[in-house]
Write a structure and sequence with these properties.
- The structure holds 2 protein chains of 2 kinds.
- Chain A is built from 14 helices and no strands.
- Chain A is globular and about 65 Å long.
- Chain A has one domain: ABC transporter involved in vitamin B12 uptake, BtuC.
- Chain A is an all-alpha fold.
- In chain A, helix 2 packs across helix 3, helix 3 packs antiparallel against helix 11 and helix 8 packs antiparallel against helix 11.
- Chain B is α/β, with parallel strands linked by helices.
- In chain B, strands 6-7-8-3-9-10 form a 6-stranded mixed β-sheet, sandwiched between helices. Chain B has a 4-stranded antiparallel β-sheet with strand order 2-1-4-5, with helices on one face.
- The two termini of chain B are 34 Å apart.
- Chain B contains 8 helices and 10 strands.
- In chain B, strand 7, helix 6 and strand 8 form a beta-alpha-beta unit.
- Chain B has a domain of 165 residues: P-loop containing nucleotide triphosphate hydrolases (Rossmann fold, 3-Layer(aba) Sandwich).
- In chain B, helix 4 packs antiparallel against helix 5.
- The longest helix of chain B is centred in the last third of the chain and has 17 residues.
- The chains are: A mainly alpha, B alpha/beta.
- At the A-B interface, helix 9, helix 10 and helix 12 of A face helix 2 and strand 6 of B.
Chain lengths: 329, 238
């Protein structure tokens, strides 16, 4: 219900406000509608709204899996540098193809090549994190290493930027702002396939994830093939986070904060409940962020990443404070 | 049920032997204390028994089955463990936590059958932890937490239960409470319990035998009774 309201708000509000009844008429395919409004809805707001919904669901599910697998409450696609990895993949793709004089426009390039580049970058960084987390598993250490990886990758991207053309650069920078509204319906369809498949697959991983809550040793002695389970989780979560980042740009903190909200609201640690709960909550929150970023009634559009980060950063601080309290009690 | 090993060497890889020449036998209803100074290899032996690491040479048999020949799932039906490591899980109820012990028997999604529910209820009664059920796992005291961890292991319905220093963080009263519950479980449910500890007096009181890993790298067995306390301490060089 809340999701339906949040979703509709995205369609109604924007630089031009469109009445609810008209939105319904346009969506139901009626002919007696304002054509300008119809264009706005179908070409811009609807794909954006759908992208927000899918990205929110996918990022939250992937964040949930990471937090369980690393047994670390601050794990998430953005914090662990997964988004940075995806950025690196996309940066290399955009700039390399610009350099060899192959299509400049990101929207003209094959959606799948962007997905692949982002997922490859994401998986690469995820594995780096995975290996490091074997050596030391400390909440703050992982957080710092994620930040360092993110920092290192930003530096690499800056180097790439300084040696490539202005057009490619501008396109890349726009991408990094994070936005749901530069997507079209075809891309949204691709996203839908990845997010739905990824979320369903995550749901199937509920039992391994529940056992991993206990830690590797208990999970193994409970009959779980831990190594295999982790490989599946890594694949699932990097494809989710990687492809969403590819389409919408880096969207910070949603994947980190939503699982905590879900656990607190539903008072549960069971992934059979948490996976759908995260998908739903994440979708609602991203839809609302999308509404806010459009600054209804004005001509400005804010980067979505800025809004999610504003909301998410306090959540991280809250988690760290809570952890310290538990540790000292 | 019988736990048996002959000329077992434990350690890492093919050549790094931590402790060799271990021969041991434990039967149904046996509660065994594993004693030895820090770093002698108690945890390594327990990990080997749990199938978490391979032995360097020799084999461990449960009911005549070589533990290493089993898959993880099959092994999970024979051996369960309780560790000292602190577990922190947000928002998990005591019941859900205990129910995780049913993992080797549940379907791919982990749905509990009526049989599973019955087994869980039975374990809760045996452990006398009904009053803890409404609580969250994170709210438990150290003693309560230990009981819940043992209950989880019992739900696995394994003939062998291994505990790594189950009394380490407990005060005197809780220590005795945990060990007497274990003793009762051991005899009533016909389990074999192996636990490591540094607490010789309590171990001798509740366990019916001790395995001692001496600094001279000998593995010896002593039948447990308070009159052996001096002897055990002497062997251990305490």
């Amino acid at each position: 219900m809340a999701l339906a309201i949040a979703f509709m708000l995205q369609l109604i509000l924007g630089s031009v406000s469109i009445p609810f009844s008209q939105v319904v008429a346009i969506l139901s395919g009626s002919n007696e509608v304002n054509l300008v409004w119809k264009n706005i809805i179908i070409e811009s707001r609807l794909p954006g709204a759908l992208a927000a919904l899918l990205a929110g669901a996918g990022l939250s599910v992937s964040g949930l899996q990471m937090q369980t697998m690393f047994r670390n409450p601050v794990a998430g696609p953005y914090v662990l540098g997964i988004s940075a990895g995806a950025s690196l993949g996309v940066a290399i793709l955009i700039m390399a193809s610009a350099a060899i004089g192959f299509g400049g426009e990101i929207r003209l390039m094959s959606s799948w090549s962007i997905i692949m580049a982002a997922a490859a970058g994401a998986i690469l960084i995820f594995f780096v994190n995975f290996i490091i987390s074997f050596r030391l598993n400390d909440v703050v250490a992982i957080l710092i290493i994620g930040l360092m990886i993110g920092g290192g990758i930003s530096a690499l991207i800056e180097i790439l930027q300084s040696v490539t053309s202005n057009d490619a650069l501008k396109q890349y920078v726009l991408w990094t702002f994070g936005s749901f509204r530069y997507t079209n319906l075809t891309q949204v369809a691709y996203m839908a396939v990845v997010v739905v498949a990824g979320s369903v697959f995550s749901f199937f991983l509920s039992k391994p994830l529940n056992l991993l809550l206990l830690g590797d040793t208990y999970a193994t002695t409970s009959g779980l093939n831990v190594q295999r389970a982790k490989v599946l989780i890594v694949l699932c979560t990097s494809i989710l986070a990687g492809s969403i980042t590819a389409f919408c740009g880096p969207i910070g903190f949603v994947g980190l904060a939503v699982p905590h909200l879900a656990r607190a609201i539903f008072k549960s640690a069971d992934h059979r409940l948490l996976t759908p709960a995260c998908a739903l909550l994440g979708a609602i929150i991203c839809c609302l962020c999308n509404v806010v970023s459009a600054l209804p009634g004005t001509d400005f559009i804010l980067p979505v990443n800025a809004i999610t980060s504003l909301l998410g950063a306090p959540v991280v601080i809250w988690i760290i404070l809570k952890q310290k309290k538990v540790a000292s009690s | 049920m019988q736990l048996k090993a002959e000329k077992l060497s434990i350690g890492y890889g093919n050549d790094k032997v931590v402790f060799g020449n271990i021969s041991l036998v434990a039967a149904e209803g046996d509660m065994v204390a594993l004693l030895g100074v820090n770093g002698i290899g108690k945890s390594t032996l327990l990990r080997t028994m749990a199938g978490l690491q391979k032995s360097v040479s020799g084999h461990l048999f449960v009911n005549g089955i070589d533990l290493q020949s089993l898959s993880v799932t099959e092994r999970a039906k024979l051996v369960s463990i309780v560790l000292t490591e602190r577990i922190y899980i947000d928002n998990i109820t005591v019941h859900s936590f205990i129910a995780l012990g049913r993992a080797p028997y549940t379907s791919w999604l982990g749905q509990l059958s009526t049989d599973d529910e019955r087994e869980i209820a039975q374990v809760i009664t045996v452990m006398k932890i009904e009053s803890l059920l409404p609580k969250m796992f994170n709210e438990l005291s150290d003693g309560e937490r230990q009981k819940v961890l043992i209950a989880r292991a019992l739900c696995q319905q394994t003939p062998l239960i291994i505990l790594d220093e189950p009394t380490a963080f407990l005060d005197f009263r809780n220590k005795r409470a945990i060990l007497s519950t274990l003793k009762q479980v051991c005899t009533e449910l016909n389990k074999t319990v192996v636990l490591s500890t540094h607490d010789i007096e309590t171990a001798l009181e509740f366990c019916n035998k001790c395995w001692i890993m001496t600094e001279q790298r000998e593995f010896c067995e002593v039948l447990s009774s308070n009159k052996y306390e001096a002897e055990v301490k002497k062997i251990l060089n305490y």
